[in-house]
Amino acid sequence: MPRAGLSTDRLVAAAADLADEAGFDQVTLSALARRFGVKDASLYAHVRGLDDLRTRLALRAGGELIDRIAEAVAGRTGKDALAAFAGAYREYALTHPGRYAATQIRLDPTRIAGSPAVRRTAEVTYGLLRAYGLQEPDLTDAVRLLRSTFHGFCALEATGSFTAPRDLEASWNQAIEALHITLTNWPRAR
Q: Which residues form the HTH tetR-type domain (predicted)?
């Protein structure tokens, strides 16, 4: 019987907090059980195991991320929308490093099929890129370019790997400008 007060949602929320505090790799069933003062086995009434917990955490974090991006992008187009999208992405990645790391794991496609967060991510991202006149297969290529750029910049920034004296905000803004120019002048697939 489930312990009073424990629920799947509370476990995933605690896992998200633990990820931000200690790192995504430190999210384990044992660590969560200690947080709740229960035995590991008690958690199996709420999650099927560590993979299930991490998948739920990834979907929760992905939902949080796209909600922030969608709010930032609302009512904007073109370069303004791109800058808002990028800014919300970066802010989330830097302020929630463990949750952000969860959004980068490979998930079983059968587990995420029909996920509202995944669907909303596609809608917002593809909506931004369609405003640049892109269609498939260019949309997929552009999504990969944006994700690679944003993730790479955020990952390097988070580890303090940018050591050149150039102002980091200036570099970020220049990257957004370069992406805008690239998207505006996208080489169309044949």
A: 5-65
- Does position 27 have pLDDT exceeding 80, yes or no? yes
CA distances to 43, 121, 148 from 2, in Å: 8, 33, 42
Task: Please tell me the predicted confidence (pLDDT) of residue 171.
Answer: 98
Whether residue 108 has pLDDT greater than 60: yes
Residue entry with tokens 């992008």 = 73
**pLDDT for position 3:** 54
The single-letter DSSP state of residue 105 is S
Using CA atoms, how far residue 113 sits from 107, 109, 141, in Å, is 10, 6, 21
Alpha-carbon dihedral sign for residues 48, 116, 31, 156? positive
Contact 17, 96 (CB under 8 A): no
Give pLDDT, residue 189: 66
Torsion of CA 63, 66, 68, 69, to 10 degrees: 180
Cα four-point dihedral sign 100, 106, 111, 112 = positive
Tokens linked to 123: 């809608």
Q: Residues 6 or more apart from 170 whose CB is under 8 A from it?
A: none
- Supply the Cα-derived Rg of the chain in whole angstroms: 19
Q: Which of 31, 3, 39 is nearest to 15 (CA)?
A: 31
